[in-house]
Amino acid sequence: MVQDLGYLKETASQTAGPYVHIGLTPNFGGISGVFERDLGSVMVNDGTLGERITVTGRVIDGAGAPLKDAVIEIWQADAAGLYNSPSETRGAADPNFTGWGRCPTSAEDGTFVFETVKPGRVPFKDGRLMAPHITLWIVARGINIGLHTRLYFPDEAAANAEDPLLQRIEHRHRAETLVAGGQAPNYLFDIHLQGEKETVFLDI
Amino acid sequence: MSDTENRRPETGAFFQRDRDWHPPAFAPGYKTSVLRSPRKALLSLDNTISEITGPVFGHSIIGELDNDLIHNFAKPGESAIGERIIVHGRVLDERGRPVAGALLEFWQANAGGRYRHKKESYLAALDPNFGGCGRTITDENGYYVFRTIRPGAYPWPNGVNDWRPAHIHFSVFGHGFAQRLITQMYFEGDPMIWKCPIVGTIPDRRAIEQLIAPLDWANTIPMDSRAYKFDIVLRGRRSTFFENRPEGN
Fold first, then answer.
1. Does B106 touch chain A (CB under 8 A)?
2. DSSP assignment of B94-127, as one string?
3. B4 contact A CB<8A
């Protein structure tokens, strides 16, 4: 016998279910009067620094249908490449930018929309710069554990070519699933859960 | 300022997730997962600063009744119908350390198993005094508490006769976006737990038992509310003894 390491096990994930809006975006889901506004619905204000962008997209299932009951969260650096987080030790992030947003996909056509700013570059562990990117986290009925992925920008070809994460994708054509379409300031990003165009998801 | 706020923030990467403990994406007994699960392997990568960091929410977002589901949707002087319970516990990480300042959001059906949602059509009645959502932030010891009505079991179209056990949905933010977690809490002694295809997506029985809140008799308030205790564990952080040097890799 050896000493017990004494670590606890992480609480297991379960699906967010079809009524996730009740808890995460109650006003969107039809419950008003409990929370003043849905958390994460606004990321920027008049004082936010950087280039304003819009990210629009859908989450598409293995039969080609958009999910109309998903919730997407995004997390990103500010325009200078600093995160608005206590674990950010390189400097103070833009106080007028939350860095975090949450949007349900619409019940009509399944689109989500984020009004945000284009993030600056942040370093990989070895000091190399990663290309500008936005982290996305997707939960919904039928998704047992939240899916992590990243959005990269189509107008950052040089930075994308040297991005350590994109370089790790063995099947090169799959890296394209992480590069948004559209053009500044309106980017399009469809997430394919399954099939030929399946988005690269991360265990990170 | 609390001790926690004075402490230097941690910047280590999080322990790798044990994906044999969590449910797999593709779990055919839960039919919706069939077309909503990736078929290709996940791309594994040690955390970067994008996952080590995460949003932290201040107490200013929390209203007075946000952790009281018995009253936060009720008309003045009225309250929701059902079994009054307190749910409380701690948010810890895998190292057993309290996670202070963690935002918890929770949502649930009413006493009859009916959700207040546009797309919900179960014939059980809505309770005009019950909304079903709440939120709170853990204190410096990682502790949280809320009160609510014990939710009812709920039928759903999966198999012909599938019913969810009574459950409360939880969403948890830790200190890093890599800790982001959504799960469900079940109640001690509910026989429905072991019949449920969603519970059954979890391969390890011990992982299921970790989602079952015991009756906490000691904290039951006489002539008022029973109590259930539910601790939540988020990913732990590696210590930063020997971090990668810039010339590494």
1. yes
2. TTS-B-TT-EEEEE---TTS----TT---SSPPP
3. no
Each of the 249 residues of chain B gets a pLDDT tens digit; together they read 344 445 678 889 999 999 999 999 999 999 999 999 999 999 999 999 999 999 999 999 999 999 999 999 999 999 999 999 999 999 999 999 999 999 999 999 999 999 999 888 899 999 999 999 999 999 999 999 999 999 999 999 999 999 999 999 999 999 999 999 999 999 999 999 999 999 999 999 999 999 999 999 999 999 999 999 999 999 999 987 766 555 433
Residue B103 inside a domain? The answer is yes
Q: Chain B contacts of A69, Cβ < 8 Å?
A: 119
Q: Which of B10, B51, B182 sits opposite A13 (nearest CB)?
A: B182
CATH number at residue B13: 2.60.130.10
How many independent structural domains does chain B possess? Answer: 1
Beta bridge partners of A97: A44
Radius of gyration of chain A from Cα atoms?
18
Residue spans of beta strands (DSSP E) within A76-178: 100-104, 111-117, 133-139, 147-152
Distance between CA A114 and CA A122 in Å, rounded? Answer: 21
- The question of whether B71 is a catalytic residue gets the answer no
Has the ipTM of the complex gone over 0.85? yes
Would you say residue B11 lies in a domain?
Answer: yes
Contact A36 B63 (CB under 8 A): yes
What 3-state class would DSSP assign to B141?
A: coil
**In this complex, which of A18, A31, A135 lies closest to B133 when CB atoms are compared?**
A31
Continuous segment of H or E residues that includes residue B43: strand B43-44
CA A118 from centre of chain: 13
CB contact under 8 A, A26 and B133: yes
Domain carrying residue B64: 2-234
Residue B228 designated active-site: no
> B240 lies in a domain?
no
Size of interface A-B (CB pairs under 8 A): 286
Q: For B125, what's the count of Cα atoms within 13 Å in the CB-facing half-sphere?
A: 6
In a domain, B241, yes or no: no
The tokens 């080590």 sit on which residue? B52
Q: Which A-chain residues 49-88 have CB contacts (< 8 A) with chain B?
A: 61-63, 67, 69, 73, 75-77, 83-88
Among the listed residues B22, B84, B116, B169, the single catalytic one is B169
